[in-house]
Structure formats: C-alpha cells, structure tokens
Backbone:
C-alpha cells in the first residue's frame, strides 16, 4: 500500500498480538528502516537516497537503473534473511516487498500513462520472480489516500507537494488493479471499513489459511512468506 496507510503499524500489532507461527515470524523491515551501515540492502538504499536528493520516491533521474537496484535489495533480502528463515520453518513478514517496487517504479517509468504503467508493473514482477519467489500471500492495506498522506506527513515531519499527492493517488489506483488481478493471492485490508482489531484478525486468519494450504517443507518448496 501507499505511504502512511498503516503497513508497519498493523504488521507490528499482528506479530505482538498473535500466537504460534505469527508471533515467531521473521520481520523484513521496509526500506525506511534499513539496519546499520555495512548491510548490503542499507548501502544500496542510501546510494539511491543520495542520488535522489530528497525526492520521497527516490527519483534520481535513472528510473530503469533505480528499479533494478531496488529489486537487488529485495533479492538480497530473500537470500540473506527470507530463505534461511523459511528453511527453518518460520513465517516471514515483509514490508514493502516486490509489489510495492513494481507499482511505484512503473509509475515513475511512465509518468503520463497509467495503462503503460500497468503493463510495466506486470513486467517488473515477472523479472523479479526470476530471481526470488514472490510472496505466498500479499496484503494490500488501503485507506483514504489523503488521510494516509497526511498521516505520513505528520510521521515524517514533511510536506508532500501537489505532484507528490497526485503520485500517491495514482499508486493507490494501481494497487487496486493489482489486487483485482489476483484476489486469491492479494487480500485487501480496507481501514475505512475495518477497525484495527478486525484488520489484524483478518490478516491472521488469511495467514493461517494459507499455511494450512501449503505443502510440507521440502527442498523444492519454502512456504510461509507474506507481504504487507
């Protein structure tokens, strides 16, 4: 989902208020919470931040290269953190995984054409899936776009420009299309209609359902990844 929609908040509550596999889940932090310098994902991200010169969407003028770097961060996350945890039989929860990259970068690559952006989003996901598995289950967390943006502004002590706000509206619409494409794999958590407790209960239920549907651990299958 877009910035400020509540991804980190709901994921943290999901983990602390749950039992069994969810309580013991490995959390892969989203980009804004990269660990200390010296970790590859952190260093790649901060190279992008430096090139973007303060742009909140990390637009440094080289959108194709930036897209590949972001995919490299998430591929590194999978190799370094996700795969080992899944081999141990743990659930992995990722914030801002492959779908977020695909949505935002496709809009950057096609600033004036939402249909081209939609096609690009699918292409980015196809490329990503060659290097690491996509999540078994994805949560799209939605809210009123203006409310989410204002929440992010308060959190980050910044002001989005009118152009930034338009970009978030475009992203929200593209996320909706992505969810409509794959309703069995993408669960929509609409905060306009669900309390926080109901949202967490729905997330927990879908994770339990998905885990029960997956085959047992084996060398060809690593079940148990979820993205919010």
Residues:
């Amino acid at each position: 989902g877009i910035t400020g929609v509540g991804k980190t908040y709901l994921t943290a509550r999901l983990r602390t208020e749950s039992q069994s596999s969810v309580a013991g889940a490995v959390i892969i932090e989203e980009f804004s919470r990269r660990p200390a310098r010296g970790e590859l994902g952190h260093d790649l991200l901060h190279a992008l931040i430096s090139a973007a010169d303060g742009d909140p969407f990390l637009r440094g003028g080289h959108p194709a290269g930036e897209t590949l770097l972001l995919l490299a961060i998430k591929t590194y996350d999978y190799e370094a953190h996700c795969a080992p945890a899944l081999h141990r039989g743990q659930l992995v929860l990722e914030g801002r995984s492959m779908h977020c990259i695909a949505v935002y970068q496709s809009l950057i690559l096609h600033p004036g054409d939402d249909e081209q952006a939609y096609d690009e989003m699918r292409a980015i996901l196809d490329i990503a899936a060659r290097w690491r598995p996509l999540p078994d289950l994805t949560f799209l967390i939605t809210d009123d776009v203006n409310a989410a943006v204002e929440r992010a502004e308060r959190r980050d002590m910044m002001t989005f420009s009118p152009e930034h706000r338009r970009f978030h509206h475009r992203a929200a619409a593209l996320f909706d299309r992505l969810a409509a494409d794959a309703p069995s794999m993408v669960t929509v958590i609409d905060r306009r209609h669900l309390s926080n407790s109901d949202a967490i209960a729905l997330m927990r239920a879908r994770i339990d359902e998905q885990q029960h549907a997956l085959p047992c651990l084996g060398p060809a299958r690593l079940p148990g990844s979820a993205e919010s």
Notes: The chain is about 55% helix and 10% strand. Residues 63-87 form the longest helix (25 residues).
